[in-house]
Amino acid sequence: xxxxSSYYExxxxxxxxxxxxxxxVKVHSDxxxxxxxxxxxxxxxxxxxxxIHVRERDRTMTTLLEHFDFYVMPVINVDxxxxxxxxxxxxxxxxxxxxxxxxxxIGTDMNRNFDAHWCGPGASHFECxxxxxxxxxxxxxxxxxxxxxxxxxxxxxxxxxxxxxYSQLVLFPYSYTMNKSKDHxxxxxxxxxxxxxxxRTTWKTYRPGxxxxxxxxxxxxxxxxxxxxxxxxxxxxxxRDTGTYGFLLPPREIKPTCLEALSAVKEIAQHVLxxx
Length: 276
Ligand code: PAY
Ligand code: ZN
Hints:
276 residues; 14% strand; binds octane-1,3,5,7-tetracarboxylic acid; globular; 3-stranded antiparallel β-sheet; 35% helix; binds zinc ion; 7 strands; alpha/beta
């Protein structure tokens, strides 16, 4: 059932996630709001949950919520996610489900579709590739919706964190170039602190580093785009694991993965608070 803790120890279909969003904002209407930011290629709604202040048992969380609102988008690739459920043989589908012109392949890599060195080295112009950048930046309605939401709130957004899997990394800009950003030193030490918070929480090892230097060149990502927009504290978490199960992480690891990720989020938020 939705309220029970086992709900957070399992994977859920898009339909269930939509119901869950509806239910949590209903039950916690004093601190949660659901914001509609646009619709997907297949016309599914895109929502961001906004969490505001009050009544937390955890002291750090209370302090953080006194100073910050948290905006959380549970799923950006709603069409792709639904597709992994309705077509189990495509359980690992990565891209969107859009088709542009008379392309013979479906889908754009949303993490190559943001307007940050769009389609440079590390992305592909070919529709059939997993890292297809799309016909132009923000060609994907989901990317456009997120970019517009972030642009419209850029003066109030103090940090941006995007969650991916897998590899256990805390990445920061840049991913589109091997060059260091102008905030490299600060972001590196904060990423190290975040990784240490994770270690204290679950004893797992996450490696901090700039994207391109740590994994590979990846242009058109949301983290670099948010950073270049002026949101200094921009991070990509690559969650569990390091390859044993890879993208098919067992459900029993969901909860500890959330706990460690949350500890890293708090570490980053505290740093932001101290540097306002
Ligand atoms: O900002 O450097 C970044 C993240 C790059 C990610 C990307 O390629 O878009 C990294 C991959 C991801 O999470 O999508 C990593 C996974 C393991 C993959 O698909 O290779
Ligand atoms: Zn990813």
